Amino acid sequence: MTPSGTFHWFELVTHDVDAAKSFYQSVLGWQSEKADSGHSPYCLFTKNGVPVAGVTGVETMLDWPKLDTFPRWIGYVSVDDVDSCVSNAVASGGRVLKEPFDVPSIGRIAWIEDPHRGDIGVIKLAA
């Protein structure tokens, strides 16, 4: 389990999942495999059989602010309580980009933005 306050996962949101898979396979030696995460299409990037990141299409996240404009990598930090983290972010001058939601078999996730417009995901893994 990833300690609270450390990066747990990275996810690429892109306009062309197949091109991204080809690029990262060529550059980093990553393989890809389809996965069920509640987003479709969604693939895992793996290295030597170990998941290292995910990739999905922009069209699956059009209701997420900032994702309808350009591809991006999203880093997810492990937290003890997603809802408390989101409340603390707002109280500290940040804003909520995606309200907390549950992904079956994965955990609870939200996306927040700091006062300087830097965005980050937070995640509490399912038990």
UniProtKB/TrEMBL annotation:
Lineage top rank: taxon? Bacteria
Q: Which organism is it from?
A: Roseibium hamelinense
User: What is this protein's record name?
Assistant: VOC domain-containing protein
- SUPFAM superfamilies reported in the protein's UniProt record: Glyoxalase/Bleomycin resistance protein/Dihydroxybiphenyl dioxygenase (SSF54593)
Domain VOC: residue ranges:
6-125
Q: Which Gene3D superfamilies match?
A: 2,3-Dihydroxybiphenyl 1,2-Dioxygenase, domain 1 (3.10.180.10)
Q: Which InterPro entries match?
A: Anthracycline_SecMetBiosynth, Glyas_Bleomycin-R_OHBP_Dase, Glyoxy/Ble-like_N, VOC_core
